[in-house]
């Protein structure tokens, strides 16, 4: 008799004993009822039929790993419940074939999913499973919410417009993508504000991505054949050149070329009845191919030389069906196993039984929490990218207009992105306040008319392009910027920890609060009281250029548009005011031109400056350390010193009424 069989028999015996003793007197029954209730991680509210997720003890996990039968465990107690529920399937949630050792440390080998009759009562099923001694936790599976946003296809005639000025790339729709560089054109959106964007153009002068960075798009299937996406999709070469219906690379997934369909178990799809194009739209914002003379640009889509970031599609919505919790957890796991270090999530679970972080964690024990933890964890022996230790999780905050983000977005370890419009103000639909971390352009329909040029422009399936609005559209801007930060770090030999990357993203923002007074009209004619959003859209509006400056450690001086600013530069030179005298620093014609500088002089430690164009530029400011003059010759004086700064001119910067200095929102200051 071999070792496995012996072990199996031993387990069966334990099962029998547990069954036989689990009854009798009332006190015991009560305490066992409490024990059973304690095993339930969530409630059946909104749960999907025919599926339960269980977490089994170590011995059972070992036994199940060796079991051949897929519908029964070979464990008497568990099999009895499986029989009762007419279970059709019992399988591990996670894929231990890849990176198994690391997964065991997180207990991922102990999660199983059971499928059974759709008619079975879920509460009874949960109770019966929880009564099994070997089952330590029971979780109801919830389907992720399907997107409701409808894309409006872009009329090709819009594309033929002539360009008013030079663009960094030749993508014909880039002028429509105000979210990257907003010129304040009122035909985009009433009240459109120059500079209410992610400040992409100056960032693109520094980096446009790197093909060794992988972003996983957890969403509807991404149309990987799209003419403006295909070069930035990561192919699994073994599957690409392999046999159909065969798992050519042995990673547990058959035909996973550009990702995997976790809903229907197979190839990624985008043309099923019910698909909206959501995943393809999100992917285009992260990394549509730049400078290829076609369609749109993406935030980290490269410069046209095959140097954009690469994407994979982790499909959790397919046609009219959405994945349940276990398939979603597997999709997140798969993202890491394919090497993604950025997890782009424009989705959420239905609002309901998750009300706070403790409930989301369920004591750090839920299956999806485990998957995200696995994704974020840095594996020193097997790093996904040499310049980022770990993986970053970025979520859309939600579109319910509520003062709290949905889950998982709201959870304190994941970045939740709120949405602004082309006017630099909160959109009518965005969630805000608790659990929301940073803002990005999500776009919106114009008041009364419902016109859509103020929405986000990106790719949709079948080589088309469309506008969409939502925090779903804001989120991929931040994912793309995170990719730019890793690319820039790599270019400069900087290794970021996950915490450092999160801190950089959350602090590299421009103020939104200064303009949050009065009311704004939404597309239906309703009003938004802007004051209620003050300080609640996250730290501020993300700025790609500032993210790169923070990555390399260059401080930014935020400057207002069309207003004279008086800045005590000594504040920026040290960690607080230091005693210096500024020297007349050279400022190049190119910088003057770029920022439209009409006034630039020094008084003591103060810089007086007026900028008339939104933009960003590097300047080197010189000062005397010790005394009013530089020493030398007949003069006993100080040492000449200098420091490089980035000047960032944005519309939201407010000035202190007393000093005229910019009031800087949360961040490194
Ligand atoms: Ca495979
Ligand atoms: Ca294959
Ligand atoms: Ca393009
Ligand atoms: Ca959060």
Molecular structure report:
This protein has 669 residues and is α/β, with parallel strands linked by helices. The chain has three domains: 3-142, no CATH class; 152-381 and 392-550, Peptidase S8/S53 domain (Rossmann fold, 3-Layer(aba) Sandwich), CATH 3.40.50; 554-663, Immunoglobulin-like (Sandwich). Helix 9 (278-287) packs parallel to helix 13 (471-491). The protein starts with a helix and ends in a 6-residue tail after the last strand. The site of one calcium ion has 7 residues, from loops.
Features:
669 residues, alpha/beta, Rossmann fold, Immunoglobulin-like, 3 domains, eight-stranded mixed sheet, four-stranded antiparallel sheet, 17 helices, elongated, disordered N terminus, binds calcium ion
